[in-house]
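Hydrolase of the HAD superfamily
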Amino acid sequence: MLNSFIEKTDVIIFDLDGTLYEGDQHFALMVENLKQRLPEKHHKAFDELYQKSLAGDHALTIGKVYDVQEDVIWTWDPFTTELTNAQNWDNEQVHIYDAPTKLSVSEFDYQRFVPIGDGWWPPYSIARHFGLTVEDTQWAYRRTKEQMANLDGMLEPTPGLQQYLEELSKAKKLVLITNSEIDDVHRLLKFLGLDHIFSDIVPSALKPMNTNKHFKEVLTRYDVKPEQVLSIGDNFMNEVAPALQLGMYGIWLTTSNEVPLKNDKFAKIRTLATE
Ligand SMILES: [Mg+2]
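Tokens:
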């Protein structure tokens, strides 16, 4: 599917973290860091919920939206942007009267409505469910990022990706749009041998709030129609849903078993490895 989408398009937009390298050990680090702020009596329940979520055995899965205020998990339609169904932590359907019927990507406020776009957000949501504050989660996130930077040497470059992208960049325009800050971006790209691949790099992109704006700028800059553009990323809300809404192709890079939608411009793949 990856190749058939690439053949059809002229501009390919990539995310960086979780997309251009392998491995998801950092989510386990995040879980351990969150638990440091959580009373020990909740640790077992935290682990059980997290394992169920990973296995696709719980309402809390990627592609959903966590409602912090009501402590429920919403099913969200990426095309109509409707919040369709609320479930509690026992997976029971519940009625919430004080909720909007629709929520666009740019309306996710991270105060009440938290999009569960990638592997960072299930542990985050479980932590909030057990009463951790935003400050607690920020502490855990910062600590995880520091541990990751120290472990850069352990980062796994995706097998064959460097050569593949080098070839691809001769025929297509490759654009990098990432939430990471510019120094982190250059350090990582250099480490991965990908620092000469992209015709444009947009750091500190504030996805998903600003994804639509960045994607429209790509359309203008390269003078292309949405159906000539493919977006590839590991965060469904940040990189995939906004692309599909604009009529672009979207590839979601994930090991999750979730299938958030069926659409002929959407595909899910497990890795960008070519070897
Ligand atoms: Mg990412």
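The chain has a mean pLDDT of 92.
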